[in-house]
Amino acid sequence: MARFENVKASSTASNPFEGLGVEDRLKKHIVEGIKKNLEEHLGDALKIYTPLEIINEVLLDGMKTVGELFGAGKMQLPFVLQSAEVMKAAVRQLEPLMEKVEGGEKGSILLATVAGDVHDIGKNLVDIILSNNGYRVVNIGIKQSINAILDKTIETKCQVIGLSGLLVKSTLVMRDNLLELNSRGLSSYPVILGGAALTRAYVEQDLSSIYEGRVFYARDAFEGLRLMGVLSEGGEPNGTIEAPSAPPAPDDEPYEAVRVRSHRIDELERDLYVFSGIKSDIAPVKNPPRIPFYGAKRHIKFDIFEIYKYINPIALFRGQWQFKRPEGMGNIEFNQWIDSNASPIFERMKRELGSVLKPKVKWGYFPCSSSGNDLIIYRDDLRTEWLRFNFPRQRDGRRSCITDFFAPSESGATDTVGFQIVTVGSQASELERELFAKGDFQDYLFVHGMSVETAEALAEFWHRQMRIELGIADQEPDEMRLLFSAKYHGARYSFGYPACPNLEDQAKLFELMSPEDIGIELSEEFMLIPEQSTSAIIVHHPEAKYFNIR
User: Fold this and answer.
1) Which among 163, 289, 282 has a CA at the least distance from the CA of 216?
2) Fewer CB under 10 Å: which end of the chain, C or N?
């Protein structure tokens, strides 16, 4: 079977370096991610070159090839990280032999996840790629205030500031950070922004218009590498670095109107939450399920290998681990490649993380009713209002809102709503930090992806138990792939996504569920800690399916 060029750290030859000169041997180590005999071959190179020459003229040339292969779709991210591991190991061996030269690096950048945001996988991947391509990276971690960012940038004499964040709110924090740079007279710093909620248009138009300096959007680590290359070479591109041009707009429509928006809902669109008097055509269930019990319960004893069965392999392999089907390869061939390459990693992660992941669940049921866009939760007397969730409604189309799945308060009837919050514990995050610090970049990616998807699997597994408790397990699919497509009765809506995007609702969930006793906390920006946790509202209505808010 044809396979990707240069993607595996192995060779069928008894000696893959046979007949190669010292430079080509070292480049082969980097490009193919081969650690065996690296120390010996570096020793050979030191007889000819200085340590700095080996890094700058040989090893970095190998990393350049890695970047080109990745950009051409001929190398998968996990193998890029394997190359980075070899690069780091080589530099670690050469560093004691080098004299430290101030400013000798290609360039320098401070990386931070902005205040209130706990996600760091994207930022750390940028760190790996830049630091192994000759740049000095100062990575100060997650939840960083603008004061901390600027103090550390000045202290460490970094040339560029890189900010990351996953949430829509993080994009607003980035905007405020840029304004603060303006007010302090520090707009001479170029700023690179990245994160799932950002769009190129938002950065290159909206944020560029308010920042007095230069601000750039990096879709991924390799775009960040390209930007750093231009900046470190003294590029003064008058506010722009050459980037993909905006898609052409229809003749009668300005580009502003065709921007691609984030999959999350901008919290400023408050009109979506205000009930206008128009509802969808969804009719509440005449006889809703009886509450299995009132309030919240806890479950902490699980067979982790049972939970593993509920991991969605496509989400893990292609989403988290980023094994992508290259252009020109058919699905059948790619699936065979996945079976040979990704599946053994999956089996290894199952074994190695069996004692690391600690599944715990808090779940419960409450009487409720709806009022416009509000879901009212009652005390156990079925009359006293406890709290309300306010959900957005579609502007057009069916005009759906989560509240439409529940009996309206004016009917005098009460309905039943469920909630769940699950985690696989904090030990996975601790292991990730250890792997990252040691330079085990590939396993860092694998452990992170596996722990996040195991939390999702736990949520899927427990949702099934809740359907059984609610007496709506009448449409359970026979195949897991149908389970992953939500081909069952009802729906599980996770907070932070289109139907219930307001993360501040997590505070109300905490009031109802008190999940602190299973080790889950809420950040100041209403994100779950540990990161490998997820929460949801459980809806029993047979018409409940995922929908977007527009």
Assistant:
1) 163
2) N
